[in-house]
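Summary for the steering committee. The consortium agreed at its last meeting that each partner would contribute one worked example illustrating the joint modelling workflow. Our contribution is presented below. We chose a case with several input lines so that the handling of multiple components could be demonstrated. No manual editing was applied between input and output; the record is shown as generated.
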Amino acid sequence: MINTWVVQLKELNGQLRDSFSDGRLGDRFHRRELLERHIGPIRRMARLDTAELSRVLGGRPLVGVDGSVNTFGRQHPYYVDFFRAMAMPSQGEPLVRQDLYCPLTAPETPPVPPGAGEAEIRQARLAALEVEVAIAAVEQFRPRLLLMDGPLVRFDMRAQDLFRLLREKALEHDTLLIGCIENIESRVITTLLGDQAPAGWRGRYDRDILWDVLDYGEILQVNRPAKGREGEEGESLPHIRTWFMQASTTPGVVGLDMLEEQVPDAAGMVNYLFSLTPADGRGIPIWLDLVDRAVRLTDGEMTAYVELLDPAVRRLFASKRDARFF
Amino acid sequence: MQVVGLTNEQEVIVVDHVRPFRINEYLTIDDESLGYPQGEVVETQSYNRFLDFNPDKGIIGPEVFQALTASTSYDIARHNIHIAKLRLLERTPVPIRPGTPVREPTFEEVRHLLVKGDPDTGLVLGTIHATDNLTRDMPPHLQNRVRLLVDGRVLDQGGVPFIFDPRTMQQYPHIGIFGGSGSGKSFGLRVFLEELMKLRIPTLVLDPHYEMSFSEVPPNCPPGYRDIRFEERYQLFQVGQDVGVDFARLSTRDLIALLNASAGLSEGMTNAVEMLHRPNDSYITFSSRLEQLIAALESGDRHGEIAGVPAEARSIPLSSLKGIQWRLSRLYRAGLFTRDIKPIENALRAGQLAVVQGPIWMLNVFAAYVTGTFYRQRREYKDAQFRRETAPYFPPFILATDEAHNFAPKAFDAPAKSIIKEIAQEGRKYGVFLILATQRPALLDETVTAQLNTKCVFRTVRASDIETIREETDLTQEEARRLPYLRSGDTFISSAIFGRTVPVRIRMAKTSSPHAENPFDELQHQTQDTVSGFWQVIEPILEQYGVINEAQLIDVARDLARAGESYTVEALRQGLERLVEEGLVTKETFLGMSQYRKAPANPSGGRT
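What follows is the complete predicted structure of the assembly.
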């Protein structure tokens, strides 16, 4: 047997090396220069000292919002999605929102782009639940800073009405809303550069362009919102600014999404976010790690709830796959 | 606190978010249907899932959580989980229900487990570990009975006192005290003896280390702590000086044992002693008989009559007789036959502690004799009582000794071994008990070890000793693992009376050993004394001369000799040099010659 993988992987290796080479993307020096000239300043962040830390939130809490979904059953439409979203304040008990979804009984789906798959529907439901709990948290806890796990843009896309409400509430109560993105899938830089983008950057993700460009503790403060964020019917969406920071020693930047109106506030908060980020971890503030851990819906927990279904009903969700011998 | 995880009838896991557990503490399982089972914590752990250790993943630096705490006062410690393995003291009929609440017991709930005697009539030896949370509702007569000495600091009782009721020895006789040097074993023995004195229990102490005197007060003894005038409750006896063997009362067997202890007897010598010794022989009659026989054999006179010597004794080889003579005179020279044991007997009859000191070889011989004599008297009294006859009274008593493996060694014989074995096996019938301390339990006779119903185990490092201790006690694997790391003064008391092992901190002693001074400190003090002694001699001379130069040292030596102080010129020079080092004398060189003068008074430097 010829192992074609060996050949294919060698080829892949060559292509990727080329794609990420200095020749294609520009060397580190030139990339930094280009970014600073056209996109925004690269600043060095510093950890706050104890006195600064005690003032940074002005005596108001910090809230982190995250969600978790787990699915019982495998085959469409024979499954139940368990959703849980949590807003965890630094003082007080967390707020929790739960939901269930089973396509067998609720064929109607939330407003998602036509043709969206099962996974997208699921993510949309979860996003709605997360934004819902975030709104409740802003009203109940009046936090100075509310961290969400994921790009704000995506919440806006998946749960538009709710997100608009969240935006209003956040502005009303002076809550700084920041979405932390560990897996950046955006093309903010090339969008902003437009025709000015070097040939090697065209169509490339922010993640590619920023690969190995920022030192540990540096942040690229993009100086304007990305254009071309109009909705389907041309109505203007809330403007969202994305900054990129390198707050851990693992390669790859994380994104920080914020409301355009809150950019001046956010500038004063980056050192705090940096202070909350472990150098060794995934590069986002520790508070989101704690929320993530708290909200996570384990198989064991889900199975315990499923026991509430009658055995006969439960059997509906059994998949032939689970009966495989191997 | 609650029970979690897989449970059984004997061991459960208990967790709590706030309160860390302590090893050996008692907890109550709050289940009425099982009668609130009690347990002892045998293993403890704490865990925080956000501070997990995974070498493949990074660690979260402390600065991150500090930043979180400083900005929001959120403390990651709220995720701490404290975990304890709780061993139930009695098996429950069914496994403990997971989720059952657990709480600290009240004192009354555990009283029967911890307190087995009254502090006024029992030996109060120390504090039971990890019982401080039980003292809140402990009755006053159990409070403040002891003080603890930890790292040189005197601490309050801080827990439930450990009380050993000597009455229980009738059922569970004899005590063993095991531990390496520096483990606190000798202190433990001292505390036992202090408590025996408190109760006026007649006790015979064999003291090969010359350390069991009780007149001195420990340096940091708090006022009022020493509540007994120990100096009136014990007497010190030196073998050969204060006490000895009454030769006339020796049986032939005793005499052989004595001579054997002096130096090993050959079979020929043993036979010879058996032939020559007569009941009621005094030292004089026996030794002169021996002398006459030797003289006769040396002069070739094989037929002349010697009083008390049977004819066949003439066939004894001369060397055997001379060997006996040598051994006998060694004992005599040590003073063994010039005194008797009456003073010890009087002390015991007075309820005192009789401490017998001597070199170990002699102590061994003497112990065999004195213990045998007293044990026999006690036995005769008791046996007569059983037979409803009358015999002179002899009190019950305790024999206590350190280095017990020398008196009752495993695998070879020692003079006192057979009597110690006999007491170990039969003693409780007659009210005679043993307290045997040793650092080598593995070398102690097994029959004796097996009869020690209560064992105090201090720090032990040697694997063979730990093995012996494990075989002879109910110490668990975990407890045995802790043995090499116990603090000095911490002990596991494994007792049939308690039915399990109790960890105890031995209390602070109320007396101290006379030679507590470190020999190296002693050397330094000695040197200081020498220096200050010389200073006292030389200071007036310096005043008189003003300046002493080297050439004048001979005159100084002569002056001093007249005053009765003898110094050579060299000794004077060395002494002056030493005083120069001390800053009391200054030295300068003039025309190649050293000259000394008294240093100007300087309040900050120099000795006073």
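The two ends of chain B are 63 Å apart (CA to CA). The interface with chain A takes residues 49-50, 57-61, 63-68, 70-74 of chain B (CB under 8 Å).
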